[in-house]
Amino acid sequence: MSNVKKLIITAVCIALCVVLPMAFHAIPNAGSIFLPMHIPVLLCGLICGWPFGLAAGLAGPFLSALITGMPPMAFLPSMLVELSVYGIVAGILAALIRTGKPILDLYFSLIGALLAGRLVAGILNALIFRAGSYSIGAWVTGYFATALPGIIIQLILIPAIVFALERAKLIPRRYN
Q: Model-level pTM greater than 0.85?
């Protein structure tokens, strides 16, 4: 895939980072439950690679905060870290994992990115962003319990989108 196509996909993913949360925030607390900004960043990393995933993970939440006020500035540093790690790890794992089965490659990359992003964001929340007021319980509640519907949506929707884009020949197939 050309760099121009990757840049276009990244730009669309960044735009989705602004638009999707606006739709979900019409419902109280829907953003923290359904995690709409995570989907385009993960897609970008999986499809375009880690540099583009990193760009989407940084630019998406930053532009969304500037344009819509979501996420609030108090949560922006944590989200920048979490989403950037998603984009980087998804891209790296997608490039490295080669089981011969596209669905396994995609799920290993996706789950690895989800765990890495949550782990890094949790550590930085505990040590820097919310030092002294952050606990393991807050981490588990915020990143796993409350976010469970969003995680399930990501595990269903992201592979479906990737395979639909491949079938439509908008992105190359992983294995020919």
A: yes
Q: How far is CA 46 from CA 1, 131, 138, in A?
A: 13, 32, 29
List the domain boundaries for the chain: 3-167
CATH architecture under which domain 3-167 falls: Orthogonal Bundle (1.10)
Residues 6+ apart with CB under 8 A from 44: 9, 10, 13, 52, 53, 55, 56, 57, 87
CA 7 – CA 19 distance, rounded (Å): 18
The answer to whether the Cα torsion of 38, 152, 141, 68 is positive or negative is: positive
Query: Tens digit of pLDDT for each residue in 104-138?
Result: 999 999 999 999 999 999 999 899 888 888 889 88
The CA-CA-CA angle for residues 57, 62, 68, to 5°, reads 125
